[in-house]
């Protein structure tokens, strides 16, 4: 499609405005992490690294980071197993209620987080009589992480089809040999991309976590939220947020490079 010079300039201008709206606040967080003022006065009078040193020696931040990593890895592992099995079942087989089941699997990621959180909290505490802990956080995160893996694997299975698997079977390969030498290499990129995105979603989730975390389980987003309005902790929170802003780029970039495209985001 050919666009006039004026239209191209207009689109370029709107693109710049959209990028500024998206990334200017994030850049401000990074700048404020070096701001000497505790109130984040802008523009900064001077810059300092003392907040970075304080964040490095913050035991609460490190403990919360460790909890977030454990929750993210466990939720991702559950999502990989359950999401992949569900994708194979719905893509490789035809049965009654298949479309309805597909809708039910993808539903958790479309629901507001607060609805999911309330539902899970009520189920754990009132129905199952389970004490909220890191385990309930993992289950809560897995409910929406499954969808990311499911969508990535299902999309890859839809594109690859079954012709290579049928050819391997015709040549005498067993089911396990076919999966190991044909199917798995074909979906490996989707699995890695789904796992990276699932971990990223779990790592920064706060709404569901708030409803499923026990008194002794605090993830990094919960730590940030609880310390954000404390005068002595606010600058340290800004440093942690700046680090997460930079680190969050890595899994999304890797997922795009490995998976080709991202099927869904939360």
Written account of the structure:
The chain is 75% helix and 0% strand. With 266 residues, the chain is mostly helical. The protein has a single domain, classed as MetI-like (MetI-like fold, Orthogonal Bundle). Helix 6 (134-160) packs across helix 8, helix 7 runs antiparallel to helix 8 (175-203) and helix 8 (175-203) packs antiparallel against helix 12. The protein is globular. The model is unreliable at 261-266 (pLDDT under 50).
Summarize the structure.
The chain contains twelve helices and no strands. By secondary structure, it is an all-alpha fold.
Task: Give the tags.
266 residues; mainly alpha; MetI-like fold; 12 helices; 0% strand; globular
């Amino acid at each position: 499609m050919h666009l006039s010079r004026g239209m191209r300039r207009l689109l370029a201008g709107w693109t710049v405005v959209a990028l500024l709206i998206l990334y200017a606040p994030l850049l401000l967080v990074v700048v404020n992490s070096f701001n000497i003022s505790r109130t984040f006065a802008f523009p900064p009078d001077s810059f300092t690294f003392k907040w970075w040193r304080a964040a490095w020696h913050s035991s609460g931040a490190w403990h919360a980071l460790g909890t977030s990593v454990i929750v993210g890895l466990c939720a991702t592992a559950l999502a990989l197993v359950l999401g992949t099995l569900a994708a194979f079942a719905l893509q490789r087989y035809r049965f009654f209620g298949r479309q309805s089941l597909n809708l039910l699997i993808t539903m958790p990621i479309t629901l507001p987080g607060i609805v999911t959180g309330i539902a899970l909290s009520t189920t754990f505490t009132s129905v199952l009589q389970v004490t909220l802990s890191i385990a309930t956080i993992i289950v809560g995160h897995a409910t929406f992480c499954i969808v990311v893996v499911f969508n990535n694997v299902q999309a890859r299975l839809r594109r690859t089809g079954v012709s290579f698997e049928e050819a391997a079977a015709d040549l005498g390969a067993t089911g396990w040999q076919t999966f190991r030498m044909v199917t798995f290499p074909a979906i490996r990129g989707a699995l890695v991309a789904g796992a990276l995105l699932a971990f990223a979603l779990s790592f920064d989730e706060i709404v569901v976590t708030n409803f499923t975390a026990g008194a002794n389980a605090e993830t990094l987003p919960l730590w940030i939220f609880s310390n954000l309005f404390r005068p002595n902790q606010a600058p340290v929170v800004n440093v942690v947020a700046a680090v997460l802003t930079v680190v969050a780029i890595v899994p999304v970039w890797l997922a795009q490079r490995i998976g080709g495209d991202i099927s869904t985001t939360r």
